[in-house]
Amino acid sequence: MSRNTQRSLADSRMRATSFSLAVAAVLLSALGVALSSVWVLGVGAWLLISAVLIELIYRP
């Protein structure tokens, strides 16, 4: 029995979306800390939360 190891286009898209959100979250969080801006830090935190939720809910 061979297993299909290739990801579908939707799986790749969701992985890229989650990765993009995580990168944006790290950048915005660092910018928020550097500028001492709580709302920028908050946006970064919410982006990180959404990236984690996508990874938890959408498991290919």
Automatic annotation (TrEMBL):
It comes from Streptomyces alfalfae. The chain crosses the membrane at residues 12-32. This is Uncharacterized protein. Keywords: Membrane, Transmembrane, Transmembrane helix.
